[in-house]
Structure formats: structure tokens, C-alpha cells
Amino acid sequence: MRRKTFDALLTTGGLVVAVVLAVAGGLLAWGHSFAASNVHNQLAKQQIFFPPKAAFASAKAGTEITPSMIPSVSRYAGQQLLTGAQAKVYADDFIAVHLSEMPYGGVYAKVSAAAMANPKDQALAAEKTTTFQGTTLRGMLLNAYAFDKMGQIAGVASTASFIGSGVMLLLVGLGIIHTRRTKPDTEVMAFLNAKAPVPVE
Predict the structure, then answer these.
(1) What pTM, to 2 d.p., does this model score?
(2) By the 8 A CB rule, do 172 and 11 touch?
(3) pLDDT tens for the 201 residues of the chain, in order
(4) Is residue 187 helix, strand or coil?
(5) How far apart are CA 51 and CA 78, in angstroms?
(6) Is residue 174 helix, strand or coil?
(7) Residue 60 in contact with residue 67, Cβ under 8 Å?
(8) In this structure, what are the phi and psi dihedrals at residue 69, rounded to the nearest 5 degrees?
(9) 62: CB partners within 8 A, 6+ apart
(10) Which of 73, 55, 72 is nearest to 64 (CA)?
(11) Which segments of the chain are extended strands (E)?
(12) Which residues, including other chains, have CB under 8 Å from residue 88's CB and lie 6 or more apart?
């Protein structure tokens, strides 16, 4: 095979790969943007706010603010919940803590079973409702966090795709230059056909 033909095939293949990576990067960037804006807009509608900064000054076990919340929840004190990261903290370090302090550890299946076994117990019925609301909100916030995390991964993948596309385009350019400098009659495996030099005695 002629070297020029071989180089042309590699250059064309590289160009195809560069285009595919660029398209993939564009789609991944769109996915990242969609996830970020969708999570923000949906969370904004819920109008959830973290407790004010002053509340963390009197953290105490069994109250709204426990000592375990200070390292994580206090970082967003007074802020509106708008991001996936905030949603995870609110779900795992605020709601989950209060659920764990409720009867049956805030596990809805256990509370529900107890309430059905004692239908006249109003306290259990109230616990069932509260637990259901808490676990439902926690689940929704963790879904928002997961969706946001997938969007972030798409953003990283988008950047990698664009970089890969750029590298391939650079290699394609070098390939074109090399093809133009190659003699028309040069074979790809010409070096195998070359005779070894005879040693001079």
C-alpha cells in the first residue's frame, strides 16, 4: 500500500473520531446544563431554607439543631436549598437525624405496621404521617442530588470529549502535513524490502 494512501486513511479516520467526540461533547454539555438548571428550578419552587446561623449556637441533642449538624448543615445556615449538594446535606444530616430520633427509628414500614396493628392509637397515626412526609421529602431531595451528580459527571465527560476532539484535530493536521511531504511512490512497509548493507571487510 502506498504511504500516501495509508496516511490519508488514518487522517480521515482521525477526522471522523474528532467529529464524533465534538458531537458527544456538545450533547454531554447540554445534559450538564439541563440537569443543573432543572435541579435548581425544581428545588427553588419548594422554598426550603436551612435554619438560621443563630440556631446553631445553641445546638443540643433532641432539639431542632443537634451537635452532629454543625459540621455540615451549618455551612448553609440561612441559605435557600437550591443545589444537589445542599439537598444531600439537608436529607442526610438534617431530616435523617430527626427521623432517627422518632419511634422505630423513623422507618416508615415499621411505623406503618405498628399503626395498622393499633388503629385507635392517635399518636402512632400522627407518627406515621410525620414519618411518611419526612421519608418522602428525604427521598425527593436525594433524587435531586443524584440527578445533579449525573449532570456534573456529564460536564466532566463533556470537557474530556472536547479535549479529545482537539487532540485528534491536531493529529489530523500533522497527518495532512506528513502526507504532503511523502513521496508518491513510497510504500508503507518499504523498510522491510530494503536490502541490508553488505559489510566491508
Answers:
(1) 0.78
(2) yes
(3) 666 677 678 888 888 999 999 999 999 999 999 999 999 999 999 999 999 999 998 889 888 999 999 999 999 999 999 999 999 999 999 999 999 988 888 899 999 999 999 989 998 899 999 999 999 999 999 999 999 999 999 999 999 999 999 999 998 888 888 777 766 666 656 544 555 555 555
(4) strand
(5) 5
(6) helix
(7) yes
(8) -85, -15
(9) 101
(10) 55
(11) none
(12) 141, 142, 145
User: Does the CA dihedral 116-122-127-129 come out positive or negative?
Assistant: positive
Residue 200, all three cell numbers: 566491508
DSSP 69: G
> Exposed, middle or buried, 171 (CB in 10 Å: 0-12/13-18/19+)?
middle
The cell for 43 is 428545588
Phi and psi at residue 80, in whole multiples of 5°? -80, 140
